[in-house]
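Task 17 of the worksheet. Students: predict the tertiary structure of the chain below and write it out as structure tokens. Keep your answer in the requested format; marks are given for formatting as well as content.
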Amino acid sequence: MGVISEKKQARRRAFLAATALALAMPTAFAAEKAKKKSAAKKARKAAPQAAAGVQTSARNSVLVAAPKGSSATYLPPVKAPALPNDWHSFALTFTAQMPVLSAPLRLWLPLPKQESLYQRNPELRWQGNFSHCGLHRLPDGELEAFVGDWPAGVAPHLEIAATLQTADRAFDVSRRTQAPERDDILHQSLQETAQLPNAGAAHALALQIVGRVIDPLAQARALFLWVADKSVYDPSLPPGGVGDVRAQIEAQRYGGRSADINGLFVALCRAIGIPARRVFGQRIGASRLADCLGVEGEEVTSAAHCRAEFYVPGYAWIPADPGDLCRVLHLENPAPEKDRALRRILFGVWEMNWLAYNHAESPSLPDAPALPFFIAPCVGTGETQAVPEAAKLTYRIRSRALPEPGAQDAG
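Model answer:
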């Protein structure tokens, strides 16, 4: 009995200890809750006074000076892109003429792209014996063109004088604070086209190139280097090339000229979900990087050139030009040091001895034949019959560098 009594007493003591602990816990929780409630009350009283000292405006927005504790405190700041300081000025002349026409004719010419961070102040003046002329624009700045009509029985002639300024364009890895691009533009820059595939063999090839790399900037660089190493530059093609990337991938023979090589880069970017696009334009001045990447003298008619750009959130559109790297490797066989330097520079830099026309893929021009891209004159009819004189079109572009504008004009 004594033993049983001792066991009972031990169980009783354990029960009483557990009961005391259980009774004490709500009291501790209540004290902690009261403490937190008191702190929150003090914070609410102090918050209006703290917020009263924050004055937001266009210069001092809620994203820059948000009241402490507000949701805007956790948003990354969005900064305006840095404006260039050094601008290059050019005067250009576009001329076109043909023999006397046997039927009405319509002529389309690509024009310099409107205002951007790297190209500005395009001023155009034209004269000729056309019966009607005007400007044709596609939405979102994809394309701007001159269109002129001539009746039968005249010898068409046209002159367009243009002035514009360009600034070298460089990607800044320290400025991941750019405002996002519009969703519809990004969607358009991911689409498959007749010349730019983004599925099937293109998708498999892009995945093979990037491997396990998941950062989009690093993926784009891997694609850039692969395209530059695998593509063969072909100077026998017309300026810009033909741009048929689908045929390259199907034949597994890569290369051509700028629209072909840079188009391959764009297609591979799109195939793994990186928005990208070709930008069609014209070399208009000498290059500081390599002789073959510029033009000497004022005659630049045969210097049409396509470039590329891709989009990474936070960085906005990033310039690239694997086509130019292939061109230098083929035409100049640079020393290893220059080769390495160009591989770094041409991923993220556009030397702006070049003007941009547009980034329209397979543009639709009224009364004109179907085009893969618009980088050279296009002759339509305005009617159904052919115009044989169009084959004798003489088209020239001349470019002249002007004195550099002052730094005070940069903004």
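Marker's comment: The chain has a mean pLDDT of 83. The domain at 76-411 is CATH 3.10.620.30 (C8orf32 fold).
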